[in-house]
Amino acid sequence: MEIGPKTNGGPSERPQPPAESSSSSIPSSITKTRSAARRALERSGYHIQVKEGQDKKTALREQLGARLRRLGPDEALKVHLTGHKYLMMFSDGKLSYFNYGGKSRKMRKGGYGHVRKAEKASGESLAIKTPRKKGLSRETQIYAKMDTENEAALLQKIHQDGPIRGIQKAPKKITIHHGQKKKKIGLLGPLYAGNGKDLRSDSSFSTQPLKEKLRYLEPLFFGLNDIHGKNIHHGDIRPSNTLYDEQGPVIGDFGGAREGRTAFSYTQGYRHPERLLSTSGQNALIEGQKNDVYALAATIVDLLDGESSEVHIETTQPNEIRDQLTAAHEKLQERIEQLSSNPEAPGLKQLLLDMTSLKGMTAAEAHERLTKILDG
């Protein structure tokens, strides 16, 4: 089942500085007007030095070329130009530049990061994720940066022996320079067609028979089993953290995931209300991974019936919070009962009930049982 438009992966080559004549490689469209030439470097924190008899447009091209030649591997220069933001970097000796500024290109705003659509001059679209700063305390900004670095490291490790089905592709970590001293990290990777919330309204998915929907979603079970086998706890599986393209769905957003210990981040409604979260202890990781399995079951139900398991809690009273979470869990059980009355997939009801029980189950067990349902 093919769903969503075809997307291309991000550049994977190791950037190599070009020859000294690289200033001529700067696209004329970037510096085509005198006013643009004046602003491009100055708004990015660089001051143009104009030689006698030289106009600012020529000076910009020469000095921007010189600045780009100083970029190391996996480094990019951010340039403001006529209301847009460009990232400029070298890949395989050639200059690549991405237009990624403007509100229209901001695709997702999470608690700790922004995801923007980046368009190359060739028309290829990628995604750039950067840690948030605006509206966050200094301490939280540090956590946002750590999460971004953690996501890159974990995904590289997950895919180190080859691509894993059902897991977001590993992005390329880059350093973005802005001005003489300012810099931040970013993740440059493939642009997915959408997330789970988009998938629910995609007619090529929603009109499929139940068993075909389950077959399409199977990679999520496979991917979760793989990362749990590598002692990784995701901690925040939900529809908006699942992505999809023409190759199928994947689990994404590994910023809060942890290796060898519990990830202490989750969305209310996507864990069992009576399973306590702990970051230490012999069984902490096991219990945390059981919450991942619960969250995957709730996500599958959301994708199949179009409702949401998320609970918005406004009270601070422990008893009231527990009551709301218990009510949401009971509502999920009712949704499973209604969903599983479909005779196309016998065994689905019990699988989802076991995945969301207090006893819980492993991702390996869940994937094995789903495979039997699909083969039956």
Notes on the protein architecture:
- 37% of the residues lie in helices and 19% in strands.
- With 376 residues, it is of the alpha+beta class.
- The chain has 2 domains: 72-191, Phosphorylase Kinase, domain 1 (2-Layer Sandwich); 194-375, Transferase(Phosphotransferase), domain 1 (Orthogonal Bundle).
- The strands form 3 sheets. It has a 7-stranded mixed β-barrel with strand order 1-2-3-5-6-8-7. It has a 3-stranded antiparallel sheet with strand order 9-11-12. It has a two-stranded antiparallel ribbon with strand order 10-13.
- Strand 4 (106-109) and strand 5 form a beta hairpin.
- The protein is elongated, with a radius of gyration of 24 Å.
User: H/E element string?
Assistant: HHEEEEEEHEEEHHHEEEEHHHH
Average pLDDT works out at 81
Distance between the termini: 19 Å
Strand content: 15-25%
Q: Tell me the CATH architecture of the largest domain.
A: Orthogonal Bundle
In total, how many beta strands?
13
Q: CATH H-level name of the largest domain... which superfamily?
A: Transferase(Phosphotransferase) domain 1
- Tell me the helix content: 25-40%
| Main sheet characteristics | 7 strands, mixed, barrel
Question: Could you give the order of strands across the largest sheet?
Answer: 1-2-3-5-6-8-7
Q: Indicate the radius of gyration in whole angstroms.
A: 24 Å
Please, how many domains? 2
Instruction: Write down the overall geometry.
Output: elongated
Structural class: alpha+beta
